[in-house]
Structures are given as structure tokens and as C-alpha cells.
Amino acid sequence: MEGTSMPKGTGLLRAVNEKRVLNFLREHKTASRQEMAEALGLSKNTVSLIVDKLLRDGMVQETGLDTTGVGRPRKQLSLIPNAFHAIGILVQDTACEFVVTDYLGRVVESGIHPMNSTDSVDCLSQIAELCLSLEKEYPRLLGVGIAVPGLVDPIRGIVHYSSHVGWRDVPVVDVLGERLSVPVIVYNRVKAAALSPTQVIPEQASSTFYIRIDEGVGGAFVIRNKVMHGASWTAGEIGHLSVDPDGPRCSCGQRGCLESLVSLQVLRRQLCERIGVERGRTEWDRVFTEGWRAYGREFGDILHKAGEYVGTGVATIVNLFNPQCIVIDSPYGEIVEFRDALLAVAEQRALSFPFQHVHIQFMNSQFSSAIGAALGVILSESPQQI
Ligand SMILES: [Zn+2]
After folding, report:
1. Which value, to the nearest 10 degrees, does the dihedral of the CA atoms of residues 72, 44, 37, 61 take?
2. Which of 77, 92, 121, 279 is least crowded, fewest Cβ atoms below 10 Å from its Cβ?
3. φ, ψ of residue 182 in degrees (nearest 5)
4. Does the pTM exceed 0.70?
5. How many Å lie between the centroid of ligand 1 and the Cα of residue 245?
6. What distance in angstroms lies between residue 343's CA and the mean position of ligand 1's atoms?
7. What is the CA(253)–ligand 1 centre distance, in A?
8. What is the pLDDT of residues 134-191, one digit of tens each?
């Protein structure tokens, strides 16, 4: 598990195999001991010992007999989803979003927890209090996943830099580890969110490129439920892909980065200029989610242009990574002008064979970073995993 303490030697092996059995059941819903032994490359005896322990601990249940194959009917096993919970938290400047999920990643509780300080020590202390109070309600807690905007080393559990919350070199896992008895993982917020769209991608998809467009633009490549972090934690940073060499200067120094062209902040400003109405941030966000049709043509033009820019980025992803799925998670992900322009430009610019085979999915999800952070806890298998 990333940045967490785990048992060593044979204890570690047993813990890893137990996690693999649980993950197999989570993905396949039901399975027999024999099927799991074959699929995981373990002996039937090892699987039986693990299953016996999980049955004793009330984590799995026998759900009937499979009589479809030849030979003796096999007992089918399934998870008891409520046997485990995981907490996911997205840290922001004035509040944190939190979710509690069951072992299948379904949200059983969510909320916004106000934070009255941006000092990292105070923030983490408030987060620890929140986790301890949730642990009272959900005693079989697998762990806590923390998502933070910025540069995060998930292996050492350190937030190197976050301009959004003003943190620098904060050892999140060590600090929370002193207060909590369960494993803690820390992720970049987009890398965490990249684990969240399990509901919208086809079950057999093994590689997904996830793009989040909101106040900023970020991305992550996920292969078989593992997020690629990169050698120095910035893999998938699509926000700084330049899609217009004559575009505006970005904070990174380049011109025409996606982030400087299509973030919520930029689109809000363009709307203000074009429509000539001053509005607060929340009012504009309501325009995006509910009232955009009232602004007709002007709004459509802005969203169409944004879709074209993202389409250029999507074509690059299709050509470079050839993923099975691309997920675009954004407040305007479901607006038709944006989608149509994006798909048209991506089709025009990408190589045609991989484009014909990629599944592009749009979504607009709240709490995706917090849910993804909780899923990161559920999916983690070993301390070396990156
Ligand atoms: Zn940039």
C-alpha cells in the first residue's frame, strides 16, 4: 500500500493474496474457490485458507452452487459489501469534501467539512478528527485516501507543493498516521479522481485516460486500476499540452495550454465579456449546469471553441496512448456544443484506426476526487505499487 505500513515477509504475502482474492470478488461479483485459484495463479489450498478466514471474519458469504460446469457443483462466493468501508477526502482551501464508500466503491455517506485554516498542521488535525468520528460509525475501516491538488509523491506520502491550499513538503501520511490506526494514502486530486469512473466505463476496459476539466485541467492514465504517476509524479498532465501556439500565455510559460483555454475560470471570464453581465462564481456555475440555454448562441460558441481545443488534446492522447477508454469529467461534459465539437476535431486529427476503437465517455461528477481516493484505498495491493 502506498506510503503505509504493512506486515513483512510471509505476513505480507498472505495480506497481498487476501487482497487479490477480495479484489477478484469485487470485480467478478461471484466466483468459486477453483475459479479464483486458476485466475490468480494460486494453489486451491491457499485460496481455501484465505476464503475460510474471510468467511470467519464476515467479509465474504457463500451464495449458492454453480451447477453449469462438469463435475461436482462448486460453491459460489461473494463479498459482503458493507463488511468494509473506506474514507476518501478531497482537501480544498476552505473546506474538504468527504465520502465513505463500501467495498464496491458505492458512496454510503458524503459531505462537506468546513476548514477554518489553511495551515497544513491545523488542516491535517481537523481531517484526523473527521476520520476518527467517521471511524466510530464505520469501525471496519480499510483506510483513508486523501486527495490534494498539486504535486504529490504517493509512495512517500508527501505533498511536495500545492499552490491551491498553500502547502509545501507536507508529510501527510506520517502526520495522519500518528493519529489514525488505519492505512493512509495520499494522491494528487486528478490522479485520485481517475479511479472514480468505474460506473461509466465498460467492464472489460483495461486502460483509460481520464481528463478532469474544472478550475484547472488535469489528466491521468489508468491501466488495470493502477494510476500511472510518472517518474516525478506528473504523468498525464494534459492541462499543459499546448493546443494553440498563438494562444494566451500560461502560468507554465508556454502559449496555448489547454488549461489556459478551457478551464472554468477562463470560460467564466469569456462569458462575462461576451454577455456583459457580472456574476458571482456560483451563479456562473449554475449557468453551466442549469441555465446555459438561456444564453443561446453566445454560450454555444464559447463551448464549441472549448470542445475543439479539448478535441485536439484527445487526438494526441488517442495517438500516443491508444487507450480503450477516454473519460472527460467536467461541468460542461454533457453540453452538446462542447461534445460535438470535441468529437469532430478528435476524429479529424487522430489516427483513424485507434479512434474507431476508442470509447469516449462524458460525465459530470461531484465528489470524484474523494470517491477515487477511497477507491485507491480499496484497490491498493502492495507498497511498491505506483
Ligand atoms: Zn501551461
Report:
1. 70
2. 121
3. -110, 160
4. yes
5. 11
6. 23
7. 6
8. 999 998 898 999 999 989 999 999 999 998 889 999 999 999 999 999 999 999 999 9
